[in-house]
Amino acid sequence: MIVVGIESSCDECSVAVVKDGRSVLSNVIATQIEFHKPYSGVVPEIASRKHVEWIMDVYNRALKEAGISSCDIDVVAATNRPGLMGSLVVGFSFAKGLAMGLEKPLVAVDHIKAHLYAPHLEYDISYPFIGLLLSGGHTVISMVNSFDDFEVMGTTIDDACGEAFDKVAKHFGWGYPGGVVIDRMAEKGCDTAFSFPDSVLKKDKHTYDVSYSGIKTAVVYQLEQFKNPGYESSPENIAASFRKAAIDMVLKRLDRAVNDTGIKRVVLGGGVAANSYLRRVLTEKKHEGWEVFFPSMELCTDNGAMVAAIAYEYAIRGRFDSLESGVSARVPDFKPYSSK
Ligand code: ATP
Ligand code: MG
Ligand code: FE
């Protein structure tokens, strides 16, 4: 079964062709980073305009690279939630037009579920597992029972993890995208230079939630207060200490989730899954009997392959969406975790 997957929820315009949910025949990702760089963040208006300009070409390139023609397509899939409204509308409307023209079924894909499905393209992963989604807009720790069945254990109560990286980098004028820049700088810094707080952990010992407002305020407004004696306030030291605090925050919740559930299988997804400190710490967890699955770098950030891959799961079950379905900017209502 050939599925074409279209992703346009934010600033990546991507179309992929995936065979039988596993074999990536093409995964064309056109990133708009250079257009948003001057603003140190994604400008929604620019993002949707670029999607309109690019999507036809990206689609044609994806088919060409895959060596197929449009009549080989069995299913059309596209992200329809959550994300930037104008951006979602472009990719999803394109998908609807394509499905109508080719007379093929449509699958509307949840971007959050797609991010956590990405590692399935590269590994055989059995359920259940603890899913850790860390992206520009979301931070979710969940019990994942199947590709479509999530129980949310914890989320952020303010900024998303990637958003915190982006905001700190923007404040210091370090460059864009913030997560990538901070990760690079942090490799040259000392992460014990500053000890930034984890305010949520102090208040409630049993939560899986995270909060980035405390760390962000500390880094931006009260930097010197958190500096340890004998260290310099160099950008590299700030970056390294911030990265450690931001990632340790989620790692502590992840430890707790693994201990409480006894499930030592962990799957990462989203742009922050590319973070080198996070990958190093979690790779070591195999010594504690954990199985940890990271998407490869290309599949961490937004891409059409993860959309096509999860759509295959719906398609083989005959679960399709109407050409009248719409888009939604908001996170869907995942059910809360209930310990059994
Ligand atoms: P969402 O998936 O929640 O809708 P999004 O699609 O914008 O948001 P992604 O494309 O998954 O998010 O990831 C982008 C985010 O990942 C940005 O916030 C970026 O700074 C962050 N990021 C990318 N690489 C790294 C890295 N090495 N370390 C930390 N953060 C990173
Ligand atoms: Mg992006
Ligand atoms: Fe994303």
Automatic annotation (TrEMBL):
Keywords: Acyltransferase, Cytoplasm, Iron, Metal-binding, Transferase, tRNA processing
E.C. numbers: 2.3.1.234
Cofactor note: Binds 1 Fe(2+) ion per subunit.
Job description of the protein: Required for the formation of a threonylcarbamoyl group on adenosine at position 37 (t(6)A37) in tRNAs that read codons beginning with adenine. Is involved in the transfer of the threonylcarbamoyl moiety of threonylcarbamoyl-AMP (TC-AMP) to the N6 group of A37, together with TsaE and TsaB. TsaD likely plays a direct catalytic role in this reaction.
Keyword Ribonucleoprotein on entry: no
Recorded family membership: Belongs to the KAE1 / TsaD family.
Protein name as it appears in the record: tRNA N6-adenosine threonylcarbamoyltransferase
GO molecular function term, any single one: tRNA N(6)-L-threonylcarbamoyladenine synthase activity
Pfam families reported in the protein's UniProt record: TsaD
Binding residues for substrate: 133-137, 166, 179, 183, 275
Catalysis: reaction(s): L-threonylcarbamoyladenylate + adenosine(37) in tRNA = N(6)-L-threonylcarbamoyladenosine(37) in tRNA + AMP + H(+)
Lineage: superkingdom: Bacteria
Principal EC category: transferase
Residues that hold Fe cation according to the record: 111, 115, 302
Lineage: Bacteria, Pseudomonadati, Spirochaetota, Spirochaetia, Winmispirales
Source organism per UniProt: Rarispira pelagica
Domain Gcp-like: from-to ranges: 24-308
Annotated compartments: Cytoplasm
InterPro entries: ATPase_NBD (IPR043129), Gcp-like_dom (IPR000905), KAE1/TsaD (IPR017861), TsaD (IPR022450)
Cofactor: Fe(2+)
NCBIfam families: gcp_kae1, T6A_TsaD_YgjD
